[in-house]
Amino acid sequence: MSLTWSRHPNRRRLLLIGGCLLFVAAACGGAREATPDAGTAIPVYDPDTGLLQELRSDRDGDGTVDTVARMDGTRIVHIEIDSDNDGQVDRREYYGPSDDRPEGIIERAEEFVGGTSRIRRWEFYEEGVLVRVEEDTTLDGQVDKWEAYEGGRLAMVELDLTGGGRPTRRLVYGADGSVVRVEADPDGDGHFEPVVPSGDAQ
Ligand SMILES: [Ca+2]
Ligand SMILES: [Ca+2]
Ligand SMILES: [Ca+2]
């Protein structure tokens, strides 16, 4: 079973299940290596309480730990991922308790501007499924892109094209992933009007 990390919620779910099983396997084997083999995780225990504190894994198999799950016993508190191997955390996922999943369930995630603690992307989950994303694509500290998901599917993207701090353009997506409607609110009154393609204008 692999610990490969994925943006896909269903694959992430597999990661969690896999991580817990690997934890059990590693604990039974008494693994204490400084660097985990690809696809395995190193457990780190509190020396006083004996409780599991971290699961460290090498997601890309380059011999360096890049993914650390902070644990409260067998439950994940958060996962930190260094996706570009520069020693700085690029993404942090926060987990909460779940009746169905003893390892916990993802509630939200943050992605950082390279090498800093500034957040560029916020993800929000319900029942482990992505429902909403906010993003600062221009890296000026202000959200300028909003995504809404339905059943894990991208349903709508809103964009701030004027830098005013609110959406002025809206893209509505169909079930097949294509854009079915474009709307605009150029005067910022919160009322969006359909954008008529220039070739269709009378
Ligand atoms: Ca690595
Ligand atoms: Ca990094
Ligand atoms: Ca921005």
What descriptors fit this protein?
202 residues; mainly beta; 2 domains; 13-stranded antiparallel β-sheet; 1 helix; 13 strands; 10% helix; binds calcium ion
Report on this structure.
It is a single chain. This protein is mainly beta. Mean pLDDT is 84; it is low at 1-33. The termini are far apart. Helix content is 10%, strand content 39%. The protein has a 13-stranded antiparallel beta sheet, covered by helices on one side. The chain has two domains: 1-115, no CATH class; 136-202, no CATH class. A hairpin with a 5-residue loop joins strand 11 and strand 12. It has one helix and 13 strands; from the N terminus they run αβββββββββββββ. The protein binds calcium ion (3 copies). The site of one calcium ion has 5 residues, from loops.
Helix content: 10-25%
Average pLDDT figure: 84
Bound molecules: calcium ion
Tally of structural domains: 2
Q: How would you characterize the largest beta sheet?
A: 13 strands, antiparallel
State the helix count.
Answer: 1
Which oligomerization state do the chains in this entry correspond to? single chain
Care to count the β-strands?
A: 13
Through-space gap between termini: 59 Å
Indicate the proportion of strand residues. 35-45%
How large is the radius of gyration?
21 Å
